[in-house]
Design a protein that fits this description.
With 345 residues, the protein is of the alpha/beta class. The protein is built from 13 helices and twelve strands. The strands form two sheets. It has an eight-stranded mixed β-sheet with strand order 6-7-8-3-9-10-12-11, sandwiched between helices. The longest helix is centred in the middle third of the chain and has 18 residues.
């Protein structure tokens, strides 16, 4: 059995407020090899960021709580570790790049001090040793005049430079796993391409594994080897990137791909996914995508499908089950009612 750097098994992270239980992440599983990039994609509210925060044990308390599952990193389950134990891993063996560097960097400290702090804490370096290493890593991430930049504050840098500083901070201790939570969202296209190229180059040099959280399928196509599609707290498709773009299985995945503008196949109007993502607290029985799915049948409304395996391709859809043909006359309308019920009314 192949060894994985990270294994997430049946992860469930719920939020509690005013007596309401909200399943933000509800039974998510995936694996990540050393030196591999896994892209997690989906619309806002699908549970991507909460999954990444759960790995680092950064779920907001007291409302958020990991209620079940395992997060096995280098053979050790992170769930249940004390705060002291997880701090030795967080920022050292697992680092994270947040999506908005201006709010992630401390405005009253220089960038040099903020990066050096990580090295002094985890690697026990002196201030002078840390300063030299900070200059080296700023040069590595493509920041010019690094000797002068270390004394500047976040507001004195451009958006692209601040994002490079966040990457430098994340890579300061040579982590085994880098979690990138939509790190290019607020950047222009040129800077975004530069940041992606930088991350790919650093991965090749250091053999760091990357968990890439994004809603941009173009980023996944350029940067990842595998992809996990999330919808409303669940993984609905899991496969390698090439297979995903050539032969998507889940109706939601197909909808995401067909809604992307194409330079080769020009159309007058893109095909959007109808409807909106429901609130996690509104989840009931059946497939969570059934209310927006053109293929949905009564079976989809009544029972949630398991994550079915088709060779190395996994998808959570009844279409690929033996039970699908038995329900071919039981379609549903957009509001989740069966076609038979609609005709009767």
């Amino acid at each position: 059995m192949e060894e994985y750097l990270l294994e997430v098994r049946n992860l469930k992270t719920y939020f509690y407020n005013d007596g309401t239980e909200t399943p933000a992440v509800d039974g998510v599983s995936f694996e990540l090899k050393r030196g591999e990039t896994l892209g997690i994609v989906g619309e806002s509210g699908s549970g991507k960021s909460i999954t990444s925060l759960s790995i680092l044990q950064l779920v907001p308390k007291p409302h958020g709580k990991i209620v079940d599952g395992e997060i096995v990193f280098k053979g050790r389950n992170l769930i249940g570790l004390s705060e002291k134990e997880i701090r030795k891993i967080r920022g050292n063996e697992i680092s994270m790049i947040f999506q908005e560097p201006m709010t992630s960097l401390n405005p009253v400290y220089t960038i040099g001090n903020q990066i050096a702090e990580v090295m002094i804490l985890h690697q026990k370096l002196s201030k002078n040793q840390a300063k030299e290493k900070v200059i080296d890593i700023l040069k590595t991430v493509g920041i010019p005049n690094a000797e002068k930049r270390i004394d500047q504050y976040p507001h004195q840098l451009s958006g692209g430079m601040r994002q490079r500083v966040m990457i430098a901070m994340a890579l300061a201790c040579n982590p085994d796993l880098l979690i990138a939570d939509e790190p290019t969202t607020a950047l222009d296209v040129t800077t975004q391409a530069q940041i992606l190229e930088l991350m790919n180059d650093l991965k090749k040099k250091t053999n760091t594994s990357i968990l890439f959280i994004t809603h941009d399928l173009g980023v996944i196509a350029d940067s990842a080897e595998k992809v996990a599609v999330m919808y409303l707290g669940r993984v609905v498709e899991y496969t390698d990137v090439e297979t995903f773009f050539e032969d998507p299985k889940h109706p939601y995945s197909k909808g995401l791909i067909t809604s992307i503008p194409s330079l080769t196949n020009r159309v007058e109007r893109l095909t959007p996914i109808q409807g909106q993502v429901p609130r996690p607290s509104d989840v009931t029985e059946g497939c969570r995508f059934a209310g927006r799915c053109k293929e949905a049948r009564a079976l989809c409304v009544a029972e949630e499908p398991p994550l079915l395996s088709i060779d190395d391709h996994k998808t959570r859809c009844w279409i690929y089950s033996d039970r699908w043909e038995d329900t071919k006359d039981e379609g549903v309308t957009g509001n989740g009612r069966t076609a038979a019920a609609s005709r009767e009314s």
